[in-house]
Design brief:
Its EC number is 4.1.2.14. The chain has 9 helices and 9 strands. By secondary structure, it is an alpha/beta fold. It has one domain: Aldolase class I (TIM Barrel, Alpha-Beta Barrel). It binds 3-phosphoglyceric acid. The site of 3-phosphoglyceric acid has 11 residues, from strand 9.
C-alpha cells in the first residue's frame, strides 16, 4: 500500500468524537476517496483510527501530526496503515522507519529531503506547501531529486489542487477542505460524500 497512489487527495481530519469516525470514513469511501489521515491533535484520534481500521477494511486509515516516537508507536498499535509527520528530526525519522509502515515525513527544504532519503524513504509530505513555495518549489526539487515524490499539504484548496496534481513529482495532495469541522459536527455525511466525489475526480499526472 502506497498512500500517494490511492486517491488524488488525502483528507486531513481532526476528530473530537470517535463516534463520528466510521460514518465520516464511510462517507469518504462512498464518494470515492479510499484514504484518510486522522491527525493526533485530539484525544479522539487513536480510538478513531482503531474503529476505522476495525470496521472499514477498504479504507486506508493513517495517523497524522506524528511528532514523537511514542506517537508513532501508539498510532501503529491503533491500526494505522501509514504515518504522516509535519516535520523531521533524526530521532523521529528512525522511529517512523522502525514501524515498517509507509510514512510521509514532512519536509520543506532540500536539506530536509536529503535527511529523509538517508533514512531510506523517498515519499514525503511537502508542508506547509503554499507558504513554502508551492508548485514552484516542487518544480525546483524535481531537478536534482526526480526520484522523490510528494504529498503537498497546507493551504491547498479545490481551486489549486489541480496545479499540484499536474506535477510529475506529486502523487496526491493533502487537505482539510473535504472534512470541515462544521460539517462533521452536523454529521452531514451526504455533504462529505459530495466533497469526496469532487476530489476523487481530480486528474493526476502520475496515476
Ligand atoms: C495538515 O495538518 O496537514 C494541515 O493542517 C492541513 O492543511 P490545510 O488545513 O491547509 O488543508
Amino acid at each position: 500500500m502506497n498512500p500517494l497512489d490511492i486517491s488524488p487527495v488525502i483528507p486531513v481530519v481532526v476528530l473530537d468524537d470517535p463516534g463520528k469516525a466510521v460514518p465520516l470514513a464511510r462517507a469518504l469511501l462512498d464518494g470515492g476517496i479510499g484514504i484518510i489521515e486522522v491527525t493526533l491533535r485530539s484525544a479522539a484520534a487513536l480510538p478513531a483510527i482503531e474503529r476505522i481500521a476495525a470496521e472499514l477494511p477498504d479504507m486506508a486509515v493513517g495517523a497524522g501530526t506524528i511528532l514523537t516516537p511514542a506517537q508513532a508507536a501508539a498510532a501503529t498499535s491503533a491500526g494505522a496503515r501509514f504515518l504522516v509527520s509535519p516535520g523531521v528530526t533524526a530521532t523521529l525519522l528512525q522511529a517512523l522507519a522502525d514501524t515498517g509502515l509507509p510514512c510521509l515525513p514532512g519536509v520543506s527544504t532540500v536539506s530536509q529531503i536529503l535527511t529523509v532519503l538517508e533514512h531510506g524513504m523517498t515519499d514525503m509530505k511537502f508542508f506547509p506547501a503554499e507558504s513554502s513555495g508551492g508548485t514552484k518549489a516542487l518544480q525546483s526539487f524535481n531537478g536534482p531529486l526526480p526520484h522523490v515524490r510528494f504529498c503537498p499539504t497546507g493551504g491547498i484548496t479545490p481551486a489549486t489542487a489541480s496545479d499540484y496534481l499536474a506535477l510529475p513529482n506529486v502523487g496526491c495532495v493533502g487537505g482539510s477542505w473535504l472534512t470541515p469541522d462544521s460539517v462533521i459536527n452536523d454529521a452531514d455525511w451526504p455533504r462529505i460524500r459530495r466533497l469526496a466525489a469532487e476530489a476523487a475526480a481530480l486528474p493526476r499526472a502520475t496515476s
